[in-house]
Amino acid sequence: MIQEKPELIEAIRSRFAHVDTCPFQGPRIFFENAGGALTLKSVGETSAYYATIPDNQGRANPAGQGLVDVIKKAKADLAEFTNSSSGQFIVGESGTELLFRMIRTACVNVPKGSKIIGTTIEHPASRSAAHRWAEVMELNYVSVPHDNEAGIVTAEAYAEKMTPEVSVATILHGSPVTGMGMDIAKIVKAIRKVSPDCFIIVDGIQHAAHGQIDLDAYDVDGYAISPYKVFSRHGYGVAWLSDRLSKLPHEQLMGAPETAWEFGTRDAGAYATMSDVVSYFDWLGGEVSDAPGRRGRIEAAGRAVHEYEMHLTTRAIHGTGNLPGLADMPHVEIIGGADNPAREGLVSFTVRGMTSPEVVETLNGQGIRTHSRKADHFSGNVLKPLGLEDCVRISMCHYNTEQEVAKLLAAVNEMA
User: Fold this and answer.
1) Residue 276: its H or E element
2) Shortest CA distance to 277 belongs to which of 27, 78, 7, 66?
């Protein structure tokens, strides 16, 4: 739908800062969205505005109360964006830090000797927290292997490892290495079928920018987002906690309310920028649908984003115009297969005869920003089983264009 409206693509791009020019490099194509998406111009304006306000939220003055209203609105906006009718949203240091806090809290409140289950596809944010607190709390860590060829983990794989003793589970919603999205609802059903009261924590950091979050449908207990990967800015993370996770004993000030999780004064501007993000999805949904309600427009935006990003990755893989796609280049190998329905705006690949850092450097010299993943503590769990030392990651968002993909293909084709 977006690909059929050139004027809409231009309107989308006009809302983002540095969409085609880097302030340090000059003109460039931005295919590094998994490392941090472009920022809405409104987010920059909002951040600057709230950064200058000296008042403390909650004080008995108009500014203090006004900041409280800003935070309340942002939480209501997030509830609509994620379709959550219960639980609470909190802001922390980063998405990674919030995953650690949620996983730690779950682990210290379940019986010793019980199990925590996770997968080999996960980012080290959740895997590290799970291993750390399994060891500290004497829990048995159960590792679910992912499908190396498809770059995903399935509900069936979880089901094979599930037992009633599993009390905590972690799930990755989208992989920043393979680019594939997991079927959260189906995985959760497989877990709860065997262990109904299991605490389930989801890493939604990579998935959030691609739309379509439905917490009421997932039946999980925690969900983490890194706002800088969903059109906001660096410096904070957002998490949603279910009512029962919120009420578990956790680090907090003595005498604080039972469900208080935030430490110190929060940045009202951070919350306000999430309202900007939600407003953007609302606007986009109105451009691609006639949905009457705000949630309906957000859902329509998510569907349109997914459809357009699938169009872009298909063009990258199978070619555009007279340019061959990555799958047609004999010197290129694609991770996760050429035709993978789980793909979410990202293609990782290798080039025969070149290291991935060399490929990235060559592309950067032509004004095409990509990134290399190495078989280190961030990506080794995915690359090592494939026998790879590294890979090139092209990560797209819905403000990218088919013309940008064509320039990328021409550059990679010349590397033969």
Assistant:
1) helix 268-288
2) 78
**What DSSP state is assigned to residue 4?**
G
- Nearest partner of 238 among 71, 104, 14, judged by Cα: 71
Q: Three-state SS for 39?
A: coil
Query: Nearest 5 degrees, angle CA 357-CA 406-CA 323?
Result: 105
**End-to-end CA distance of the chain, in Å?**
34
Domains and CATH numbers, the chain: 2-38+295-413 (3.90.1150.10), 45-278 (3.40.640.10)
d(CA 85, CA 265): 26
| Nearest Cα residue to 381 out of 108, 113, 176, 167 | 176
What is the Cα–Cα distance from 20 to 23, expressed in whole angstroms? 10
SS3 sequence of 11-38: HHHCCECCCCEECCCEECEECEHHHCCC
Characterise 133 by phi-psi region: left (phi > 0), alpha (psi -120 to 50), beta (else): alpha
* Contact in structure between 2 and 8 (CB atoms under 8 Å): yes
Sheet holding 332-334, edge to edge: 332-334, 346-351, 390-395, 371-374
Task: Give the Cα-Cα-Cα angle 102, 203, 408 (nearest 5 degrees).
Answer: 155
- What distance in Å separates the CA atoms of residue 207 and residue 37, rounded to the nearest whole number? 12
pLDDT tens for each residue of the chain, 416 residues long: 888 899 999 999 999 999 999 999 999 999 999 999 999 999 999 999 999 999 889 899 999 999 999 999 999 999 999 999 999 999 999 999 999 999 999 999 999 999 999 999 999 999 999 999 999 999 999 999 999 999 999 999 999 999 999 999 999 999 999 999 999 999 999 999 999 999 999 999 999 998 789 999 999 999 999 999 999 999 999 999 999 999 999 999 999 999 999 998 889 999 999 999 999 999 999 999 999 999 999 999 999 999 999 999 999 999 999 999 999 999 999 999 999 999 999 999 999 999 999 999 999 999 999 999 987 887 888 889 889 999 999 999 999 999 999 999 999 999 98
